[in-house]
Amino acid sequence: MDFKRSDFPESFLFGAATAAYQIEGHQFGGAGPTHWDTFAAGTGNVVRAEDGAVACDHYHRFAEDLDLLKDAGMDAYRFSTSWARVMPDGRTPNAEGLDYYDRLVDAMLERGLKPFQTLYHWELPAALADKGGWMNRDTCDYFGDFTDVITDRIGDRVAAIATINEPWCISYLSHFLGHHAPGLKDIRATARAMHHINLAHGIGMTRLRAKGMKNCGVVLNFDHTEPQDDSPSAAKAATTWDAIMNRWFIEAITKGTYPAEALAGLAPHMPAGWADDKGKDRQPKAFHSVNKNTRPKISAEDTGVRTQMTSAEGPGDKTQMGWEMYPDGLRSFLPRLSRDYIGDMPIYVTENGMAWDDRVENGAVYDPERIQFVSDHIAATKKAIDEGANVQGFFYWSLLDNYEWAFGYEKRFGMIHVDFETLKRTPKASYHALKAAIAR
Ligand code: IFM
Q1: Cβ-based neighbours of 107, under 8 Å, separated by 6 or more
Q2: Nearest Cα to 404, choosing from 325, 323, 303, 295?
């Protein structure tokens, strides 16, 4: 890789990220069923109907995985705490689940790794999905209770806490585009979920602050949106997409408002009294986190009934996900975030990574494409810092090959290969290259 640690400020953190349902093995330790188990069991929702029952068995193998992080010279580990493990029915604490996270955090500290916790990374307890999930406003208060329970147990030792991972995916991708659990394509459900997820963030932040927790924030995903062509309809569609994907959550959280371009379609479907909630999601944060991967090109399709937005990938090289590799999107977005929304507040790039069809050959995995990808995105992060963004850390997504949601185990994002038959871990060439760069 082209960079060295000394290109960055001394306090800059290098780490890798994972999420509970994607790696832990949800059949272990008394975790309750989640809406992802239900979604995966449906026909055609997930490749081969795979679920997170075993995943990488990180639940039993976390010591080995954390050793690999430490051996790579990483400073921090971004992990998430499964709501359904901590409270299997969404409401009642599970001692075994709390003990697990207690051991996990201690194991990070023993290895000198800073624990970066995300409270909610998508495994909604099925019992709460039964009550309407994120369409139900009560879920926001229940999230607050979950925040209390897990923070009482590990909050004294974590370095940072993010409330929610990628609200756009939880709401729009899952309730309008239907790609993720609960797999809906329903604008009324979408508007509710898009509002409630912001409210849940606000309630979570309030609970964390009440406990004196200082380093708290949220993780949003952004894409550098561009119109597909020069037509006015494509320009309008790109502006609307940008409003829904990039502005809805950050503007609610920083300004207490929703962008007019998004409200134009969503307002008729919002829950009653939504305008009275204005500002409840706008709680003071200490940091902001960004997950960034690709560049959708947006066009408008006139169906004869109404105009709909269509997203397609840009022209550059693609990853195994079919996503365009576009590091300049990261370079341009980070200063935009500082300039338009958060000023000098610290930013962490909490996820950046690529999937590739990696294979073990002669006991090793050769992945030059990922080495180039990481090198380019770390260079883009450096440029963004030079342009004024206060970026304080970069987390590769992901530490391990894992459960890539609707794609099952087919897409390999890890710096460490996992054989899903034997669960053997094999660090890829990119792991060794990143380790060398961090050591320089
Ligand atoms: O695997 C996901 C992760 O859970 C959230 N951010 C994007 C990753 C790749 O799709």
Answers
A1: 62, 63, 66
A2: 323
Residue with tokens 């790109």: 238
If phi > 0 it is left, if psi is from -120 to 50 it is alpha, else beta; for residue 363 that is left
Residue to mutate, 166, 223, 245, ligand 1, most ligand atoms under 8 Å from C-beta: 166
d(CA 193, CA 271) in angstroms, rounded, equals: 9
Residue tagged active-site, from 166, 226, 251, 404:
166
What pLDDT, on the 0 to 100 scale, is given for residue 303? 66
| CA distance between the termini of the chain | 11
For residue 246, CA distances in Å to 25, 165, 278, 404 come to: 32, 14, 18, 22
The predicted pLDDT at position 221 comes to 93
At position 175, the amino acid (one-letter code) is H
Q: Would residue 351 show up in a list of annotated catalytic residues for this protein?
A: yes
The sign of the dihedral angle between the CA atoms of 181, 186, 187, 193 is negative
For 189, the token pair is: 């459900």
Supply the residue whose CA is at minimum distance from atom 1 of ligand 1: 404
Report the DSSP beta bridge partners of residue 118.
80, 162
pLDDT in tens, 394-432: 999 999 999 999 999 999 999 999 999 999 999 999 999
Distance 404 CA to ligand 1 centre (A): 7
Residues of the chain with pLDDT under 50: none
List all residues whose CB is within 6 A of at least one atom of ligand 1.
19, 22, 166, 291, 351, 397, 404
3-class secondary structure, 23 = helix
Element containing residue 38 per DSSP (H, E): helix 35-41
Q: What is the structure's pLDDT at 122? A: 98
**Helices in 123-231 by DSSP H: which ranges?**
126-130, 138-154, 167-168, 174-175, 187-210
Q: Tell me the helices (H) and strands (E) count for the chain, helix number first.
A: 16, 13
Sequence-distant (6+) residues with CB within 8 A of 159 are 76, 114, 115, 116, 215
